[in-house]
Amino acid sequence: MVIVKAKNYEDMSVKAANIMAAQITLKPDSVLGLATGSTPEGLYSNLIKKYEAGELDFSKIKTVNLDEYKGLTRDHDQSYYYFMNDKLFNHVNIDKANTNVPDGTKEDGEAECARYEALIDSLGGTDIQLLGIGGNGHIGFNEPDESFIRDTHCVKLTDSTIEANSRFFASKDDVPKYAYTMGIGSIMKSKKILLVASGKGKAKAIYDTVCGPITPSVPASILQLHPDVVIVADEEALSLIK
Ligand code: F6R
Fold this sequence. Notes:
By secondary structure, this protein is an alpha/beta fold. It has helices spanning 9-26, 41-52, 80-87, 109-122, 159-165, 184-188, 203-211; strands at 2-6, 31-34, 62-65, 67-69, 99-100, 128-131, 153-156, 178-181, 193-197, 229-234.
């Protein structure tokens, strides 16, 4: 595991974008595993800046996103499909046909998750997987559990995640209760992992991920077993690591 210490959120965003940009430059037809949430927003705006400056070409890039809320249509402004278009895809020369997000409108969760897992495999897996981390150590929507779940699956969101995500919805009751998410195995298949974290609220999760035992009660702790992980985190998120 390589840990890159950033001063603050802006610095974290620049440093993480540089790593993603290097991946796109070195392998212009990369399969990027992408994440949503507040943390990667700055990374995405830095990628857009680099594209506008003529430094990056997304024309051969393919993407697969980690997760999607079950029940939200693609035009819902809190769907992760909408987020990705709004924060990145609409601003760069990516072919939208090459972008993939689980389809939250599909009622048959088993079929949709099987389709998505097969899609990841058909692309040869991801070259780099971007991850945020929940305050409870979740990655994607893999919540603390008694065992690691391998493949893309439907998950019931925990109360702490619903609470954390309610800031984006009119009320807590409007937050979907279920989501489709890549599993731990789908994430671990990536050739490289780039995890970004910012702020004090992530300090305990980062400490447990890096220094704690490998346990499904801290899903991100499994990353200790991956051969190529870079964590880019700011001083606050790294504050418990001596
Ligand atoms: C989003 C995702 C989640 C977030 C995590 C942190 O696609 O997979 O695991 O990365 O909930 O969210 P933020 O960045 O909003 O703190």
